[in-house]
Write a structure and sequence with these properties.
single chain, 593 residues, alpha+beta, six-stranded mixed barrel, 17 helices, globular
Length: 593
């Protein structure tokens, strides 16, 4: 009952959360993308930009360093796009009031009525909110993981926002397409064209289409991924329950063999006896499933929803009837009981009434006892005969212990696995510091003069005198969909004599290989997950395009932190047409300042 209640509660909460998340795009009018500029967009520039088939909205913000050591990104209340969901308290109405993200407040032990301080400025918290475009609190879209302790978002009144110094403002603009793209591929094409178009008129600081915005999509991509694990747990428990009921039914038939024989001899049919013995297990299972579902929709639902609210800044959700949860936690257990018990009972009750009256439930002729050597003393022979006579019972006991251990491992092994993974990641880093450089959006805009200056500035600013620093190139492709889910694979183009990735490409001939027969090393994580070996050929593709690339594996590098491919930097730049001097970041064992 409790496991059915928990699984039901999890599936209900998970389904309701996903429904609320999916509906939030329309309910809160979430942006199709945003970009930041160096200066405020003038009215004529806005009219030009909106002529490209979009509607533009101001989404300005300031970032304030608070006295608790965290950073708060403050917006004025959004009433047209990226609307706000009030979770507790009330929205700010006066100067000096603020509503902050609920999860950020929980993580920093803040509540309605508390005060935030930044320098000499203070704000009174009037409410806890969820911003529809910040379901995951990413301060920068390039961050590997969000930090809801050191970064948060908040809402103030228009009057309060206008009091901020203009030099502190980030001129961020959200856009909505007049005609929504049909799919992500079309959205990618539209956003690339849009970036080139507006780059001719304004200087871009950043450009983030919705489909790559982690603050919006990270939550949706992660939610629902735990469902498979919970369903596996449910199946294990259902099999154990069926196993227990089956053994209990067999023992009952053995004990009541004389009664069954008398009833059969008196005219009772086999099906009548089957229905009699099936009724109790099925009834108990049905009651457990019904009570479990009631608990799932009341108590356990809130527990499971709390796990999501503890990780993400989700808006308020409404419990939605989940037919899948009902099927898995009510219909399936009852069917399992029906099928298992019917099979056992039908098999047991095939015997004629005389067999039951004699309490002889064996289907085969009695075999002669296994001959044991007379050299074995009588007590040892007695023990051996007991073992041989009850061998089938020991097998059943063994199966039961295996199932019990599966449940035990399920509960105890996960923390150990996570601890091991954390330790393994720390001990298996390519370098103590790994810096990924972000090319300014203005360098890719349509304005050639602005792009040239931005690239020059980027090139000069990306150089370092740190002696430990080593350049590398990076690129990403996706595995082909099919037997396995499509995964993103990171390509590292490294120096031939790298201090951080110890691979001698001269021995493999990879340095001189062509595009068609490029030879690469892959990470151990990649090899283990996709069952790859040295000598295999892998084919990967661009995420939103049809271009495919094939590589031959010449070695497996002992790196378990990610799905990676390693090759010489010059070759990677050549294959993906990145330019001879291109590099994406630095490996370093000391901090680059």
């Amino acid at each position: 009952m409790s496991i059915i209640g928990f699984v039901s509660g999890f599936l209900v909460a998970d389904g309701s959360m996903l429904t609320a998340y999916d509906n939030s795009f329309e309910k809160y009018n979430i942006e199709d993308g945003n970009f930041a500029t160096e200066e405020k967009v003038y009215k004529n520039q806005q009219e030009t930009i909106e002529g490209y088939g979009v509607k533009l909205y101001e989404n300005f913000y300031v970032e304030k360093a608070l006295s608790n050591g965290s950073t708060l990104r403050i917006f004025k209340n959004r009433e047209e796009v990226n609307k706000v969901c009030l979770m507790k308290g009330k929205m700010p109405k006066e100067i000096g009031e603020i509503a902050i993200d609920r999860m950020y407040a929980d993580n920093n032990k803040l509540s309605v009525g508390d005060t935030l301080k930044s320098g000499k400025k203070t704000w009174k918290i009037t409410g806890l909110v969820a911003l529809s475009d910040y379901s995951a609190l990413f301060q920068n879209n390039n961050d590997t993981m969000f930090d809801a302790i050191k970064f948060g978002v908040g809402i103030v009144t228009k009057e309060e926002f206008s009091s901020f110094n203009e030099s502190q403002l980030t001129y961020d603009y959200a856009w909505k397409y007049n005609k929504k793209p049909k799919n992500e591929k079309e959205e990618k094409k539209r956003s690339e064209d849009f970036m080139e178009d507006i780059g001719k008129d304004i200087t871009l600081e950043s450009f983030i289409p919705q489909y790559v915005n982690q603050a919006i999509h990270f939550t949706g991509d992660d939610m629902g991924s735990d469902e498979a694990m919970i369903i596996v747990l449910l199946y294990i428990v259902m099999v154990i329950m069926a196993f227990v009921f089956g053994i209990t039914t067999s023992n009952t038939i053995r004990k009541e063999a004389g009664v069954i024989g008398t009833l059969r001899a008196s005219g009772y049919t086999k099906n009548e006896l089957i229905r009699h013995y099936m009724s109790m297990p099925v009834f108990v299972t049905l009651i457990g499933a019904v009570v479990g579902n009631i608990l799932g929709y009341t108590i356990f639902k809130n527990v499971c929803a709390g796990m999501y609210y503890g990780s993400y800044s989700l808006p308020t959700y409404v419990t939605v009837w989940n037919a899948k949860a009902f099927l898995l936690t009510t219909v399936v257990p009852v069917l399992i009981m029906l099928v298992v018990n019917y099979g056992i009972l039908r098999s047991k009750l095939k015997l004629p009434p005389l067999k039951f009256l004699r309490r002889d439930l064996s289907r085969k002729k009695q075999k002669r006892a296994l001959r044991l050597s007379s050299r074995i003393n009588i007590f040892s022979r007695f023990r051996l005969r007991v073992i041989f006579q009850n061998f089938s019972n020991y097998i059943v006991l063994f199966v039961g212990i295996v199932f019990a251990n599966l449940l035990l491992f399920f509960g105890l092994l996960l923390p150990s696995v996570l601890d091991h993974y954390q330790t393994d990641i720390q001990n298996n880093m390519l370098a103590k510091y790994q810096y990924m450089l972000s090319v300014p959006t203005s360098a890719m805009s349509g304005n050639k003069i602005s792009s040239l200056f931005s690239l020059l500035e980027y090139s000069l600013g990306a150089k370092t005198e740190n002696e430990d620093a080593e350049e590398f190139s990076a690129y990403s492709l996706n595995t082909l969909p099919g037997k396995y889910k499509s995964e993103e694979v990171t390509f590292y183009g490294i120096e031939p004599d790298s201090k951080y990735v110890k691979i001698d490409f001269a021995d493999t001939g990879a340095e001189n290989s062509s595009d068609a027969d490029a030879e690469v090393y892959i990470s151990k994580a990649y090899a283990d997950k996709f069952l790859l070996h040295t000598g295999d050929t892998i084919t990967l593709k661009e995420k939103y395009e049809k271009d495919e690339y094939s590589f031959r594996i010449v070695g497996i590098y002992d790196y378990t932190a990610a799905l990676c491919v390693f090759m010489p930097r010059s070759e990677l730049n050549q294959i993906f047409d990145l330019g001879d001097d291109y590099f994406s970041g630095y490996f370093s064992n000391s901090e680059i300042t």
